[in-house]
Amino acid sequence: MVTNGDKKCRKVPPKYQCVHCDYKTCHLSHWKKHIVSKKHKRLKMVTNGDKKCRKVPKSADFSKSFICFCGKSYKYRQGLSRHKKTCNYGVSSSDEEDEIITNEIIESSNVIKKEDVINILLGERKQNKRVIDLLTQQVELLTESQNSFTIHGNNNNMNSNNTNFNVQLFLNENCKDAISIQDFAKQLKITMNNISLLKDNEPKAITNIITENLKDYTDTQRPFHHHKKKWYVKDINEGWDKEGDVKGEKIIKNIKNGVSRKAPKVFVENNPNFLVDEKQGNAYAETMVVAMKDVAEKDSNKVLKILKDGCSL
Hints:
Elements: E1 16-18, E2 23-25, H1 28-35, H2 38-48, E3 66-67, E4 73-74, H3 77-86, H4 91-147, E5 149-152, E6 157-160, H5 167-174, H6 181-186, H7 192-200, H8 202-214, E7 224-227, E8 230-235, E9 239-240, H9 249-270, H10 278-292, H11 297-311
Helix pairs in contact: 7-8, 7-10, 8-11, 9-10
Protein name: C2H2-type domain-containing protein
């Protein structure tokens, strides 16, 4: 840095000042660039209408003076303050424009907020409608499940749509006209094939007799049902079992009684010479022994295990 003794070079005071942009320069080229800039044109349009920027007087000392937007400068702050009370340079138009712009911004902001609120309310209304529709559908499905059950004809299975299926209600209401186990046993239809199989494979013979005779009855007419490991049997005097029977003894006992009553007649009809024919006579004796005796527990369990697949609720 070049110095003059112990004094530093002084900064050249600006010759040009733009009161709109608060811009100062001492170079004409810089000044020309500024007055064509976008910033200058924008601020000039807002604050000064069609008034031109003024050239700074050569004698102006910006470091020691107070300048108004109108271009007048004062040596003291008090002078500038008194001048501003009477100076109307760009004040009214600027204030009005600022007020208009401010109002437009506020109004625009209010419109956006109202639209947002409306959209939110409409969205909530649609959401609430979807929730109500879903709840209505669930109530309808629950009502249907409580009042209906599905009957599968191929497997003779009845499956309730209600998880809390009331067996007693179903039996007393839907199966009130079902045949009793005693009447079912009395009306058994037995073939000679059933009797012949009886002495060779008693469980299979009894199973065949029961399943063949159940075909004559609908699901709600049959004398017994299976539900959750229990057998519910209709008695001729007591009606449907209230508690259910795990072993199903009443079924096997009554069926075997029906077989023992029917077997002799069926055998004789198919073997009229059994009294004189030794072979037929021996077959009759063997068959009647099996028909009259009680069914062993293990054989009874085999029969019921097969039956429950076609008699379950």
